[in-house]
Design a protein that fits this description.
The structure holds 2 protein chains of 2 kinds. Chain A is mostly helical. Chain A is built from 4 helices and 3 strands, in the order αβααββα. Chain B is built from 26 helices and 24 strands. The longest helix of chain B is centred in the last third of the chain and has 44 residues. The chains are: A mainly alpha, B alpha+beta. Chains A and B meet through helix 2 and helix 3 of A and helix 2 and helix 3 of B.
């Protein structure tokens, strides 16, 4: 498959980015993703099943994640990032970092310039 | 299995909001995840409630997006699939565009002419009241007495308004023009609900003055008006649309000057039917009275406005009480009915049946189109059985596959409909241009939101029907056939059925077109009772003496055979006179068309004399009974015999008339109407009317004589209104124009229907040949000749054609009543017509099968067998 441009999908919605983030450190099934996002954000981002699987469907279709044979059982399937998905998540993270840096450069946001 | 707990069932119920496909992919996981979420908070009721709240909101918000998503994917998939089958898509979209486009165009015309409300406030509440002779559509005029009686008795109509016809010649400004003027009662403009676009209507004082001017005058004597309101057209013609027209004085023939007080809106020209008029004057009616000699004069067109919540039937009850002077007809004592007819029906008139027929024909074309498109989709679906079976095996639900087919059909019909709408935008102005001017209300015809709504509805209905049909048939092939691994059915019975239906509908169209062709031919050879060839008809102004002088000068022109003054044939001219009696019989005769003519008139028309003679110079003056010539119908009806010579008719008590001749019936009102009783009087001795038309029989080309005749007319009276000097044949052609128009369109539609049906037949047979290649190969290997093979294929087409034709014949026979008003000189069940149409269809069908049959016959049996 030809090299796809990861930035073409940017910007991601926060929910999509959170789902990608939660899969960044390994495969998870849906419920685990929900819990991980909730904990990581201290309950600020609460995904529901409808939203989650809507996102999962699109990420699968776009080839950002795929089902993991190893982690699936007969009731649930586990998902993991594809290489492309990782690139997209990284590109989004860099985009967000650049935004933060700009905000700091304008002294809008406190913090050392990296 | 124990029943699932409530919360799980509730969640599953919520999941049903999502598309089945999404549910199939993720439903189980969502349920399991939710189960985990719920279990985690199960100890805390408040958290549980919040979880439910959040989840329900989320599912409700998410589900529609998933549906849209699925729809979008279906559309993309459908477009891809349509692109893959370029040829059949092009054929389907093209036929849909033609079918929907033509329907949208005809719909626009039919709506604009037939169904659109009259352009007055609550215009559909306006009715015209008058005597309705059985078989007629337009109410006739009323006499003063009946008008007053009706106004008294009528219920459900607040007030009646009357308009009396009054010819007026305006000589200044501009060229002299003769216009029909309407003298209206004081409430006329209120009843119609219209106000002038310039100036004003008439004041009560002006109405009173008009009434005073009529004092002591006969019923047909009309004093010149003192004020008038111009019609929009006359305003443009005389004043070029200048607002200064109001307040100007115009001069009438004879020198009277009339003040223009207002200008009427355009709608008064297009939407009042026979009341439409060049100008309007006050014409309040005197109290009812019977005029000298007992003869009465029917000249009032009467309008009323239904009160709210009153139906036309309620009004009829009151009208039945109005006593119309009983009149005698040969059928017995028959009183013409006083009827209220919606004004819109009066305005539309006979065009209604013609346009309805046209609409029916174009809907037939659409039906054939639909059958073709459905057939194409079925062919495609059967070609895709393998694909669908695979997809079904891979887990696509049945609903998903049906939806896919539906989307495909809808996308196709939407594209076809959109193209069709553009086609309508382009054709409607063409149709309006092409339509004869005697079709009313064409000025308001156009493509508008109703056309859009109509084509959208048509496209959606066609898309849904065709899509469902192909989806449901395709489903039958979903199970993979284990033996062969692929489905190889014969062309489905459904497709054959569609082709049969196409043939049947096409046959109905062809029968209709053939009937129209035969009607036009029959009308071309109808016995008019006169010979219009080499006859010029001209308007002749002036007094009878001036007319006589003009006739002499015209007769002296080289090339003129003879000439005379009388009503213009076929313009419905002449006057209707009631109150005639036969001495010794107390009853009054039914109204008779009376034409005052001069000697030479009947000769110029080459009428056939059945008994007695035509008028001669000696009839022009004299004492004693005036001589009359009567037509055959009068003789039969009133005297029981053609031999009516020397019998007497009384016009009132003092005006005896003696029959000197009987002639064949002349068609004076229209080509197809059977002539009624008619009487010809000598113009100079007619007590009732003057006449202003001249007919001239010429030797050679009528056109060559028009200029000298024109100069004679002008030399007698330079103020002569100039309405036209035309060959009589032109009037006949004009009369035929709407019928030619409908004929041409129906001919076009049936040709289209036939072509589409042939394409349908060809498609089915060709595909069947493709599918039967192995079978044909086997047959040929066993010794079948090319002739055998061709017969095999042709037989299949022949069978479809015969079934279709039989059904079509039955359909056409069942629908024959709809054509009755349109045909003339041929029965709507005419066997020859039906036979010709059936033969035409069978030949076309067999011709369509020839190409696939020849292809089958040329098959190489070895290659055919190898294909298997």
């Amino acid at each position: 498959m030809a090299e796809r441009d990861a930035t073409a999908l940017l910007p991601l919605t926060p929910a999509v980015f959170h789902v990608l983030l939660s899969l960044a450190d390994g495969q998870k099934h849906g419920y685990a993703v929900l819990k991980e996002v909730e904990h990581r954000t201290d309950g600020a981002v609460l995904l529901s099943t409808g939203t989650l699987y809507g996102i999962v469907k699109r990420l699968l279709a776009d080839g950002l994640i795929r089902e993991s044979v190893a982690g699936s059982d007969d009731r649930r399937r586990a998902y993991r990032l594809t290489a492309f998905g990782r690139k997209v998540a990284l590109a989004e993270a860099e985009r967000l970092r650049d935004l933060v840096l700009s905000a700091q450069a304008k002294k809008l946001l406190a913090g050392a310039a990296v | 299995m124990p029943r699932e707990p409530f919360h799980r069932r509730l969640f599953r119920a919520l999941l049903r909001l999502f598309p089945a496909e999404f549910r199939g992919d993720f439903g189980e996981q969502m349920a399991a995840d939710f189960e985990d979420q719920r279990r985690e908070v199960s100890a805390q009721p408040r958290e549980t409630r919040r979880l439910w709240f959040r989840t329900v909101l989320d599912l409700a918000a998410r589900a529609p997006r998933e549906h849209l998503d699925a729809l979008w994917r279906d559309v993309v998939y459908a477009l891809r699939s349509l692109r893959r089958h370029k040829a059949s898509t092009a054929v389907a979209v093209f036929s849909l565009a033609i079918g929907i486009g033509l329907n949208a165009a005809v719909f626009s015309v039919v709506h604009g002419v037939l169904w659109r409300e009259l352009p007055f406030p609550d215009g559909d509440r306006l009715v015209q009241v008058g005597t309705l002779t059985p078989g007629e559509q337009r109410p006739g005029m009323l006499e003063d007495v009946a008008y007053h009686d009706a106004a008294q008795r009528i219920q459900g109509i607040a007030s009646l308004a009357g308009a009396a016809f009054l010819p007026v010649t305006i000589v200044e400004p501009g060229e002299p023009v003769l216009f029909g003027c309407s003298a209206v009662t004081a409430n006329f403009f209120d009843v119609v609900g219209t106000s002038p676009i310039l100036g004003r209507t008439f004041t009560p004082a002006e109405y009173a003055q008009a009434l005073g001017d009529r004092e002591g005058k006969g019923p047909w004597e009309r004093p010149s008006p003192r004020v008038m309101m111009l019609s929009h057209a006359l305003w443009l013609r005389l004043f070029g649309g200048s607002p200064d027209a109001v307040g100007t004085l115009v001069t009438l023939a004879g020198g009277d000057r009339v003040e223009v007080v207002g200008v009427a809106g355009r709608e008064l020209e297009s939407s009042l039917g026979t009341i439409a008029s060049g100008c309007w004057t006050p014409g309040e009616l005197p109290p009812p009275r019977v005029f000298e000699g007992g003869s009465r004069f029917w000249n009032l067109s009467v309008l009323g406005r239904l009160e709210p919540d009153v139906s036309i039937h309620d009004v009829q009850a009151g009208l039945n009480l109005v006593e119309i002077e009983p009149r005698w007809t040969p059928a017995g004592d028959e009183v013409p009915l006083l009827r209220a007819v919606p004004l819109r029906d009066v305005v539309v008139g006979e065009v209604r049946t013609q346009l309805t027929l046209l609409f029916g024909a174009v809907v037939c074309v659409l039906l054939v189109t639909c059958a073709n498109v459905a057939s194409l989709l079925l062919a495609r679906a059967s070609g895709r059985r393998d694909e669908l079976a695979t997809r079904a095996a891979l887990g696509a639900t049945r609903g998903r596959l049906v939806r896919q087919s539906l989307t495909e059909a809808l996308v196709m019909s939407a594209v076809g409909g959109a193209v069709g709408l553009f086609l309508a935008l382009w054709t409607v102005p063409l149709v309006i241009d092409w339509a004869p001017t005697n079709i009313p209300r064409l000025d308001g015809v156009g493509v508008n939101w109703r056309t859009l709504l109509f084509s959208t509805t048509a496209a959606v209905v066609i898309g849904v029907c065709c899509g469902l049909l192909s989806a449901l048939t395709a489903r039958q092939g979903l199970a993979l056939q284990p033996s062969s691994g692929r489905a190889t059915p014969r062309v489905g019975g459904l497709r054959q059925g569609l082709v049969v239906a196409e043939i049947a509908v096409a046959l109905v169209l062809v029968v209709g077109a053939t009937l129209m062709v035969r009607t036009v031919r029959a009308l071309g050879t109808v016995d008019l009772g006169f010979d219009p060839s080499h006859v010029i008809s001209a308007v002749l102004p002036g007094t009878p003496q001036e007319q006589a002088a003009a006739i002499e000068r015209v007769k002296a022109l080289p090339g003129v055979v003879t000439a005379g003054v009388g009503g213009g044939p076929l313009d419905g001219g002449g006057m209707f006179l009631g109150g005639l009696t036969i001495p010794g019989d107390a009853r009054e005769l039914d109204t008779v068309r009376v034409q005052p003519v001069t000697p030479g008139y009947l000769e110029a028309l080459s009428v056939r004399v059945l008994a007695g003679r035509l008028f001669e110079e000696r009839d022009l003056a004299g004492d004693g009974p005036s001589p009359i010539v009567i037509n055959r119908t009068t003789a039969r009806q009133f005297f029981g015999d053609i031999d009516a010579l020397d019998r007497t008719l009384m016009n009132g008590q003092t005006d005896p008339q003696i029959v000197v001749g009987v002639i064949a019936d002349l068609r004076e009102a229209s080509l197809e109407a059977e002539p009624g009783p008619g009487i010809y009087q000598v113009a100079t001795r007619s007590r009732n009317f003057s006449t202003s038309d001249m007919v001239i029989k010429v030797d050679g080309d009528p056109d060559a004589l028009i200029p000298p005749i024109r100069s004679i007319v002008r030399s007698i009276d330079p103020e002569a209104p100039f309405r036209g000097i035309t060959p009589l044949q032109d009037n006949i052609d004009r009369e035929m124009a709407p019928r030619h128009f409908v004929l041409q369109l129906i001919g076009l539609f049936s040709a289209l229907g036939l072509a589409l049906a042939v394409i349908g037949v060809y498609g089915v047979i060709a595909e069947s040949v493709t599918q039967r290649v192995p079978e044909i190969g086997v047959r040929m290997a066993f010794g079948a000749t090319t002739g055998n093979v061709m017969r095999l294929v042709l037989r299949q087409g022949w069978r479809l054609a015969v079934i279709g034709v039989l059904l079509g014949l039955a359909g056409a026979a069942a629908l024959n009543g709809t054509m009755r008003a349109q045909v003339y000189g041929v029965g709507t069940l005419d066997p020859v017509t039906y036979a010709v149409a059936a033969l035409c269809l069978i030949l076309a069908t067999v011709a369509a099968c020839l190409i696939p049959a020849r292809r089958a016959a040329r098959l190489d049996p070895v290659a055919a067998l190898r294909a298997e």
